[in-house]
Write a structure and sequence with these properties.
This protein is mostly helical. It is 48% helix and 12% strand.
């Protein structure tokens, strides 16, 4: 039987201070993510989903309109992916491989910021490869590019639990901090090679 267990953060809880607090990461990782993992394990136990790897669970649940399984499995994937999109001393110059696809670093930053800030309520801002084209897409709720056959490259979690303890209602400041100080461009470039 498949049982998903909590995975560790790829950095220490205080690694992103002061841009993302240890307190935020404990709540985000240890509480929110843990709930999605527990829910998913309960939902798939004894079903045909329990033998599938996570990405296949997401795709199958999306295709079958199994909303609860999709939401929880996608949120597990999205969070694991998001935490790998962060690193101490991150941010800085947008890599040419990404910037060039959007007409330059400034154009990329403007489109990414606009997309992330424009998500109504909770969701995810993604850079994803669709065939041979890079796109910036908004995903409401648990939406994820892999449900649509795209390769995720980078994401920013804009659910309030990702930033509210540190930024309150200032989502735009959180987006700036992500791009300027936290984004893990090396991880994004690894995903481009897949």
């Amino acid at each position: 039987m498949f049982t998903l267990t909590q995975f560790p953060l790829p950095f220490e809880y205080d690694a992103l201070e002061p841009d993302m607090s240890e307190n935020t990461l404990h709540f985000h990782h240890d509480k929110h993510l843990a709930t999605y993992i527990n829910n998913l394990n309960d939902l798939i136990e004894g079903t045909e989903y329990e033998v599938l790897p996570l990405r296949k669970i997401i795709k199958k649940a999306a295709a079958e309109n199994a909303t609860k399984i999709f939401n929880n499995s996608a949120q597990v994937f999205n969070h694991d992916f998001f935490f790998h999109c962060l690193r101490r001393g991150g941010g800085g110059r947008v890599p040419d491989e990404i910037a060039d696809a959007f007409g330059g670093a400034d154009a990329f930053r403007a489109e990414f910021k606009s997309t992330a800030a424009g998500i109504f309520g909770s969701g995810w801002a993604w850079v994803a490869r669709d065939g041979d084209k890079l796109k910036i897409i908004a995903g409401a709720g648990a939406e994820t590019p892999i449900a649509h056959g795209m390769q995720p490259i980078l994401t920013l979690d804009v659910w309030e639990h990702a930033y509210y303890l540190d930024y309150q209602n200032r989502r735009a400041d959180f987006i700036d901090s992500f791009l300027d100080k936290m984004v893990n461009w090396d991880f994004a470039l690894e995903n481009l090679k897949m």
